[in-house]
Amino acid sequence: MRDKVFYLLAAASAALLSWNLYKIFFVLGDEKDQGSIWRIFHFHVPSNILGMSGFIIGMVFSLIYLVNKNLRYDAIAAAITEVSLVFAAVGLVTGSIWARIIWGVWWAWDARLTSMLVCWLIFAGYLMLRRAIEEPIQRARLSAVVSVFGGIDVFIVWKSIEWWRTLHPGPVLTIRNGGGMPPGWQATMYWNLLALLCLAVMLVMVRMRQEGVAREIDSLRRMAHSY
Amino acid sequence: MNALEIEDVWKYYGDFPALREIKLHVTPGSTVALLGRNGAGKTTLLRIVAGLSKPSQGDVRILGADVRLESSRRRIGVLGHGISLYDELSATENLMLFARLYDLDNPRKRAHAWLERTGLERVRDGLVREFSRGMRQRLAVARAFLHEPELLLFDEPFTALDDRAIAVLQTLLSEAHSRGRTLIMSTHQLREALELATHVALIHRGQIAYAGERRQEMLDDAGWLYRTYGDN
Amino acid sequence: MAAFLRQSLIIAAKDLRSELRTKEALNASLAFSMVILVLFSFAFDPSSEQIQEFSGGLLWLVYSFAGALALNRSFAREMQNDCLDALIASPAPASALFVGKALANYGLLLAVELISLPVFGIFYGVHWTQRFWPLLLVMLLATWALTTIGTMFSALTVNLRLRELMLPTLVYPLMVPALMAAMTLTTDLLGGTPLNPENMIWLRVLVAFDFIFTALAVVFVDTVLVG
Known about the structure:
- The complex is a heterotrimer of chains A (227), B (232) and C (227).
- Chain A contains 6 helices and no strands.
- Chain A has 227 residues and is an all-alpha fold.
- The longest helix of chain A is centred in the last third of the chain and has 41 residues.
- Chain A starts with a helix and ends with a helix.
- Chain B has 232 residues and is α/β, with parallel strands linked by helices.
- The longest helix of chain B is centred in the C-terminal third of the chain and has 16 residues.
- Chain B is globular, with a radius of gyration of 18 Å.
- Chains in contact: A-B, A-C, B-C.
């Protein structure tokens, strides 16, 4: 059952991605102000959406773990956070490339990108903490608390960086509204969001399986050492 | 009512059960020697009973009440591997700190009384940092007994102590025993433990392999218990 | 509630008493803050007028770096003789332990800050006295933010092998909103701008941050220390 879902998702994301790439490069034309670089939004925006919502969903699963102490939820939270970190990184890099072309600088301290970077650092800390703890239950417990602190901090970071930026106005053409994409072209972006979502779910499934196996190995090792 | 009831306690490290369906009832006034090899789960179990760690499953009750309740913790005295004293504070300050945390009346008087009983009255204002190893151990014993706990939990009490500290501890223990206090001590020093004990619990591979009264065979031949209920 | 407060104060008094006896953390953070203050003078022209524009930022970098030294040790000092076990086994709940330690750290950090503030004024010609009372309010609020996060994560990392490495990587990204608010407000106040409706929003960020994370820490500290 699980394998079937996995292959189905793989096929769906492969098909969707090829179709979307075809549309992005051959069907949709250049944008009038930005030229061809606007195409990067088809990956930038979905990656950010997935990364950000992944952090929040990871926090929810961490809370569930703290309530019922079932390590399965810890594995879900860890897998989702890790995959989200990758998508957030894609969002950051694509945003930076876009800024280089449009503004001439790699990093302009745009509000959304800055918030994203801070959140990325918070959850990178979460993953580093997980690596530093060997005992699975202690790891689950402590990293779940970090995830809750981080997830709640995300909201405060987001709000306050927005205020900070409104007080220090940045460039007019911001990355936040998709760089003023024509409404008809947004459909492709949402299709790409779906494609990347399939990919993300797939990766989460792979990571969860690894977490399960790693736990089994850990318990076997403990058994071997104790008896 | 039992002094201590451990009901179907499991403790997992990851998916590995370090303790499995531990069930142990201890009647008031008994002295239990908790035996087992290194890594069998003695310290893990004692930490759970002391409320320092939570069981993955099961209940621990002290005189009928859950161990993590404030009222239950007042009834426990713990002496672990470390001395649990502050080097930068004096002997009196250390004991007064714990007397205050346990909300005892007249902390200073109580601290001085216990310093006297452990033979530390002359250095009562000296910093713990300057104490010799034996003095620190006696002070640690005083800290564990300070609030006159009904249940004493000692993890390897005799391994680290010097002669004088052992003498102090033995006096205090026999006095506590005569006043009906309950003692649980983990140890692998069989002879000392067995001489003190009224009951014995053997943990083997995270399970209780034997729990019951101390028998004569155990005193005559210390290896008997392990051979009969353990592996070899 | 009265018992909770009493137990917190006992812990705080104990921490302050042993700290004042050795002055280890106090001396180290004071010396460190002086070092950073000197180092900053090489980073830019210390006599320029521009200093007003980022004085708040400098000051809070000094405070947060120097503060981390003291916060780092907060729970670590309990490990020396296994003191933490005795405290957890005592009737005082883990949350009282947290509040007590946080109060002691708060006093320590404020002392370091109040000593290095005039030094900062002398070195960089900053007029910190002209709006002292609002500045003190900002310091009180922002230092509590650093203290709660720092103390909580000191508890969280106390049993870890890589404690010294983990603490700063976890703590600083989480502190971003509080530091940003404190820096903005402090720059305004040092430059002579009073608290006004426009920068009031940062005061609210600080109050919200303090409340949210103090509440979270009190709720989760038992999970962190006991399980």
